[in-house]
Amino acid sequence: MKTATPERIGPHEAARRVFAERYAEARVLFLAGSVIRGEATATSDLDVVVVYERLAHARRESFSCEGWPVEAFVHDPETWEHFVEIDRRRGVPALLRMVIEGVEVPEASEFSAG
């Protein structure tokens, strides 16, 4: 027997809420992953890269927002560069791909272009 999937708000609106409610002090949030590539399924999550001006430590967080599971990769420019280099050495540019393919929330800026 199939269970009904609860209705969710759109991924872009959910990302805006995540930014406003959880990461308002960040400079930018990049919404990435299957929802941006047009490959989302009923069980897809929101993959977001959050970039602050400065952080003591990078972190990864998992939580829910408006019916969406969210995987957040939280960085500043220094930690982002460090993890991109680790990915490059492994030959798996996952973090870099998320930012390149991602949609900027709340909007594109000079900071996010850098």
Topology record:
Blueprint: H1 11-22, E1 28-32, H2 34-37, E2 46-51, E3 59-65, E4 68-75, H3 77-90, H4 94-101, E5 103-105, H5 110-113
Parallel strand pairs: 2-4
Antiparallel strand pairs: 1-2, 1-5, 3-4
- Give, in order, the helices and strands: HEHEEEHHEH
Work out the radius of gyration.
Answer: 14 Å
Spatial ordering of strands, largest sheet: 3-4-2-1-5
Question: Which strand-content bin applies to the residues?
Answer: 25-35%
How many helix segments? 5
**End-to-end separation:** 50 Å
State the share of residues found in helices, binned by percent.
25-40%
Structural class by helix and strand composition: alpha+beta
Which residues form runs of ≥5 with pLDDT under 50? none
Question: What's the story with the biggest beta sheet?
Answer: 5 strands, mixed
Q: What multimeric state do the chains show?
A: single chain
Which shape, going by the Cα principal axes?
A: globular
Give the integer mean of the pLDDT values.
90
Number of strand elements: 5
Explain what the structure shows.
With 114 residues, this protein is an alpha+beta fold. The chain has five helices and five strands. It is globular. It starts with 10 loop residues before the first helix and ends with a helix. The mean pLDDT is 90.
Summary?
With 114 residues, this protein is of the alpha+beta class. It contains 5 helices and 5 strands; from the N terminus they run αβαβββααβα.
List the main descriptive attributes of the protein structure presented here.
114 residues; alpha+beta; 5 strands; globular
